[in-house]
Amino acid sequence: MEFIRPEHYLPNKKGIADVKQYGIGLIGCGSIANSAHLPAYRKYGLHIAACCDVNAEAARATAEKFDIPFWTTDINELLAREDVGVIDLAIHPEPRLEVLKLIGKAPRPVLCQKPLALDLAHAERLSQEAARLGIILGVNQQARWAPAHKALKTVLEQDLIGEIYSIHHYMRSFQDQAGWWWTNMANFNIVDHGVHYVDLCRYFNPYPEEWSRVHCTTAQLKGQMQSIR
Ligand SMILES: NC(=O)c1ccc[n+]([C@@H]2O[C@H](COP(=O)([O-])OP(=O)(O)OC[C@H]3O[C@@H](n4cnc5c(N)ncnc54)[C@H](O)[C@@H]3O)[C@@H](O)[C@H]2O)c1
């Protein structure tokens, strides 16, 4: 019997032969880019070639903080750069279609933040548009690579715990935090953050067919900001 080891589930750079070849062009210099994407890129020595945001101050401050050699508010300027090999799309779902069309003029592989969209029709539209424009579109469902989840996947692959009949995720969270974009967002705990757990159901599914049922729910106390609509 094989047992899991840290190299099975901890992040690594295996498979990236030449980081320069994959210079990253970041579109969207907001909270998640600054707090998670860029520190991780820096930690693993990846090359961040350029960054862009419609908010000039966000683009400038991000470039300064992470020593990014080029910043702009114009996506076309970012796309014109030869050192941008891949795009990190760290904006909200609403402007994604418009931005994807611009990237389509000089297609690069795109890693798009989750949730891809807030409804299925929009997600399908983005997927179709990416295919039409020749863009490889990945969705950043990074919970799959969180060490605990990757370790569990390894356990499943090694058949250490037998057959899976159901999966239960229990998430303790709330959106009663004033001043954030999610504070009053409808169904935030399901459609935004909760999408990680829906995705993990797929990731952990050992069968070729989809699960026959997936449900999720939240609770709300009187006076809580959480909006269930
Ligand atoms: N994977 C995760 O665990 C995780 C965690 C947090 C956020 N996210 C997702 O990341 C996305 C962004 O979240 P955030 O917290 O960084 O939001 P944010 O509001 O802090 O940042 C978004 C940035 O995008 C910029 N922007 C908007 N339209 C643009 C355009 N057309 N071109 C260039 N820049 C544009 C805004 O000016 C802003 O700086 C959301 O979809 C969110 O759900 C994912």
Give a verbal description of the structure:
It comes from Paenibacillus hexagrammi. InterPro entries: Gfo/Idh/MocA-like_OxRdtase_N, Gfo/Idh/MocA_oxidoreduct, GFO_IDH_MocA-like_dom, NAD(P)-bd_dom_sf. The protein has 229 residues and is an alpha/beta fold. The protein has a domain at 15-143: NAD(P)-binding Rossmann-like Domain (Rossmann fold). Helices cover 35% and strands 10% of the residues. The chain contains 9 helices and 6 strands, in the order αβαβαβαβαβαβααα. The chain has a 6-stranded parallel sheet with strand order 3-2-1-4-5-6. β1 (24-27), α2 (31-43) and β2 (48-52) form a beta-alpha-beta unit. It starts with 5 loop residues before the first helix and ends in a 25-residue tail after the last helix. The model has no long low-confidence stretch (mean pLDDT 92). Residues 27-33, 52-55, 58, 90-93, 95, 99, 113-114, 140, 142, 181, 192 line the site of nicotinamide-adenine-dinucleotide (NAD).
Sequence-ordered SSE layout with sheet pairings:
Elements: H1 6-9, E1 24-27, H2 31-43, E2 48-52, H3 56-65, E3 71-72, H4 75-79, E4 86-89, H5 96-103, E5 110-113, H6 120-133, E6 137-140, H7 147-157, H8 188-192, H9 195-204
Parallel strand pairs: 1-2, 1-4, 2-3, 4-5, 5-6
Keywords: Oxidoreductase
Family: Belongs to the Gfo/Idh/MocA family.
Domain GFO/IDH/MocA-like oxidoreductase: 150-221
